[in-house]
Amino acid sequence: MARSNPWGKTSGLAGFSPDAYGDGEARLTCFCVLPEHRGAGLGSTLLSHTLDGARRVGQKRLVIYTLAYIDSLPPGAVTYLKSGARIEAEYLQLQRK
Ligand SMILES: CC(C)(COP(=O)(O)OP(=O)(O)OC[C@H]1O[C@@H](n2cnc3c(N)ncnc32)[C@H](O)[C@@H]1OP(=O)(O)O)[C@@H](O)C(=O)NCCC(=O)NCCS
C-alpha cells in the first residue's frame, strides 16, 4: 500500500504478509514515510489503512518485531502505540565491542 501526496508522488509505503505467524496473524513487512513528509500524520493514516486492509483479508493481528538501543524506543514505536498497538514482549541482546 502506498500513499501519494497531492502532486501524485509516493510519500510513504506500508505492507503486510498475511498469515505469516499463523492463521490470521500477519507480519507488518514495511512501514515508512519519506523524511520530508514525516510528522504530518501520514504514518498514522497509512497504518490505519493497512490495518483495515489486513482485517479485510481475515487477519486478526498485525505483528512487527523491531530493534532499538537499550535506552530508546524502536523507530515507529510511538506511531504504533498511538494507533492502539501493544508491546507484548521485549528481548535483550548484549554485544561485546
Ligand atoms: C515511523 C514513521 C513511518 C512514522 O511516520 P510519520 O508520518 O512521521 O508518523 P505520524 O506523523 O503519523 O506520527 C504519528 C505519531 O507518532 C509521533 N511520532 C512519530 N515519529 C516520532 C518520533 N521519532 N519520536 C516521537 N514521536 C514520534 C508523532 O508525533 C505522532 O503523534 P501525534 O499524533 O501525537 O502528533 C516514519 O518516522 C518513518 O518512516 N521512519 C523511518 C522508517 C521506520 O523506522 N519505520 C518503522 C520500522 S519498525
Provide an overview of this structure.
- The chain starts with a strand and ends in a 15-residue tail after the last helix.
- It has helices spanning 42-56, 77-82, and strands at 2-4, 10-17, 25-33, 61-63.
- The protein has 97 residues and is an alpha+beta fold.
- The protein contains two helices and four strands, in the order βββαβα.
- 22% of the residues lie in helices and 24% in strands.
- The protein has one domain: Aminopeptidase.
- Coenzyme A (COA) binds at residues 31-33, 38-44, 64, 66, 74-76, 78-79, 82.
Question: Can you summarize this structure?
Answer:
The protein is an alpha+beta fold and 97 residues long. The protein has helices at 42-56, 77-82; strands spanning 2-4, 10-17, 25-33, 61-63. It contains two helices and four strands.
Q: Please write the CATH class name.
A: Alpha Beta
User: Please, what is the CATH homologous superfamily?
Assistant: Gcn5-related N-acetyltransferase (GNAT)
Our estimate of the beta-strand percent is 15-25%
Estimate nothing, just give the exact number of structural domains.
Answer: 1
**CATH architectural arrangement:** 3-Layer(aba) Sandwich
Distance between the termini: 39 Å
**Nearest-angstrom radius of gyration?**
15 Å
**Approximately how much helix is present in the residues?**
10-25%
User: What is the overall number of helices?
Assistant: 2
Strand order of the largest sheet: 1-2-3-4
The total count of strands amounts to 4
Mean pLDDT across residues: 91
- Bound ligands, each once: coenzyme A
Shape descriptor: globular
List unreliable stretches of 5+ residues. Answer: none
How many strands, what sense, and barrel or not for the largest sheet?
4 strands, mixed
Helix vs. strand class: alpha+beta
What is the H-and-E element order?
EEEHEH
Return the CATH topology.
Aminopeptidase
